[in-house]
Amino acid sequence: MNKKTSDFNKVFSAWDILVIAFGAMIGWGWVVSSGGWIEKGGVLGAAIGFVLGGIMVFFVGLTYAELTGAMPQCGGEHVFSHRAMGANCSFICTWGIVLGYVSVACFEACAFPTVLTYLLPGFLKGYLYTVAGFDIYASWLIVAMVMACIIMIINILGAKTAAILQTILTVIIGGAGVLLIVASVLNGNISNLDGQMFVGTSNGSIVKSIVSVAVVTPFYFIGFDVIPQAAEEINVPLKKIGKMLILSVVMAVVFYALVIIAVGMVMGPEEIVISQAGTGLVTADAMAAAFHTSTMAKVIIVGGVCGIITSWNSFMIGGSRAMYSMAESYMIPKFFAKLHPKFKTPVNALILIGVLTMLAPLAGRKMLVWISDAGNFGCCVAYCMVSLSFLILRKKEPDMPRPYKVSAYLFVGIMAVIMSGFMVVMYCIPGSGANLVPQEWIAVGSWCLLGLVFYGVCKTKYKEKFGTLVEIISDEDAASLMPEADEEELERTIDAAIDVVLARMCA
C-alpha cells in the first residue's frame, strides 16, 4: 500500500455535501412519476413504499457513513472494497458504480431538453431521425449537447463552482416542493384521499401493492454515495461527514413521501387518472389545482428541470472521482488520474464523461432509459459489496479509527447486505417490477466486457502496480514523516519570523 498526501483542494463545506447528495437523489422523478406511484400503491401505500425503500437505503447509508469517516479519500467504494476484499473485488464494485454514475449523467442529458418541451411549446424543430420509437429533433439535440458541455466545464472549473450551482438549484427544488406541500394543506381536501389510500381489497393485495412501489424506490435514492467519492475534498470533521450522509437520505425520504401525500390531498382518483393519461405530469397538475392557476404548474416543472441538473452535476462529480481512484490504482489507464493543475479536478475523467453525455442524446431517450436502468443495477451491486466490506472490516480491522462508529454493527451490516442483495435479485427476476429487460441486460453485458478489456490490458501493462491501493495520510502525519530540521537553521527561521511580526507591529 502506497501512502501520500491528498492532491485535492478541500473546498466542500457541510452544506455543500448535503446539497450534492440531496440534489443527486431528487431529480425529475418526483414530477413525472408521482401519478404512477399512486396508481400502483395508493397515496398512503406509495408513501409507505418510499419509507420502506428509504429504510433499506438508510441501512446501506449507515455502512457508508462509518466507512467514509474511517477512510476519507477519493473513490469511496473503491477504497472500502479494496481494503476489505482485495483488488479484484474492488474492480467489480467500482466498475459497477461508475456504470451507474455515467449512465444517469447520460440519461439526464436527454431528460433536460425533453422537459423543455413542456415549458416551451413549439420547441421541437428540425426532425432528424427516430431511434427505438423516439423522434430526435435538431433543436432538442443542440440544447442537450450544449448543456452537457456547460455542466462539464463547470465541473472542470472547480468542485466549489459545481457546489455553488448545486446549492442554487437545490434551493429552487426545495422551494417548489414546499410550495406544493403547503398549498395542499391550505387548499387540499382530505376527502380526495377516499378510495385511493391503498390499492387492493385484501390485506395481502395491499401489502403486495406497497412492496411493488418499495422495490423501485432505491433507484430514486441513488446519489447519497456521491459523498464518499469526494471525501478528500470535504473540509468537515470526519464524524460529521457520516451524519450529513445519513441526513441527506432522511431528507430525500421525507421529501418524496410528502410530495405523494400532497398530490393525493389536492387531486382525487379520477383527476389523477386523467392527468396521468394526459401530460403525465401529475405533480405539476396538482400544483395548478392547489393554486387554481395553470401558471403554477410551470413552477413545479422548473423545479424538475433544476432536479435534472442537480442529479446530472452530482453524478459528474461522483463518476469522475470513481474513475480517478481506479486510475490511481492502475486499474484503468493512468491517464484518468490527471488533476487540473489549477482547479485540482480530475480533468481527463470529467472530459470523458462530458463527451459521453454530449454524444448520448444521439442514441435517443428510449435507449438511454435502458442504459440508465442497467446503471441502477450496477449501483445496487456496489451497495451490496460495500455492505459486505463494512462487516469484513469490523472483523478484519477492529482497531481501525472510526470517527463515526455505527452501533449494533452486526445487525446494521446484515440488514444492509440482505436489503441491497434483495434489490440485486429483484433486478434479475422477471415480473418483479424492477427486472431488467433484454436490452438492459445487453447494456450490462457490454459494460462487463469493457471492464474485462480494461482489466486485462492494465494488468498486463502495469503488472505488479495493478490494484495498488493508495492510502491518503493527513497533513499532520505527513509533517511527522519529514526529516527533522537542523536546530540552528530552525532557530534562524524562528528569529526571522519574530522579526517580521515585530516590524509589522511597529509599522
Characterization of the model:
This protein is mostly helical and about 500 residues long. The protein has a single domain, classed as Amino acid/polyamine transporter I (Up-down Bundle), CATH 1.20.1740. About 70% of the residues lie in helices and about 5% in strands. It has helices spanning about 15-25, 30, 35-40, 45-70, 75-85, 85-120, 140-155, 160-185, 205-215, 220, 225-230, 240-265, 270-275, 280-290, 295-330, 345-360, 365-395, 410-430, 440-460, 475-480, 485-505; strands at about 1-5, 125-130, 135, 470-475. The longest helix has about 35 residues, at about 295-330. The radius of gyration is 24 Å and the shape is globular. The relative contact order is 0.20.
Low-confidence spans: pLDDT under 50, at least 5 residues? 475-487
Query: How would you sum up the global shape?
Result: globular
CATH superfamily descriptor: Amino acid/polyamine transporter I
Regarding quaternary structure, how should these chains be classified?
single chain
Question: Strand portion, in percent?
Answer: under 5%
Number of domains: 1
* Helix fraction bin: over 70%
* Helix-strand pattern: EHHHHHHEEHHHHHHHHHHHHHEHH
Structural class: mainly alpha
Question: How are the strands of the largest sheet arranged?
Answer: 1-4
Please write the CATH class name: Mainly Alpha
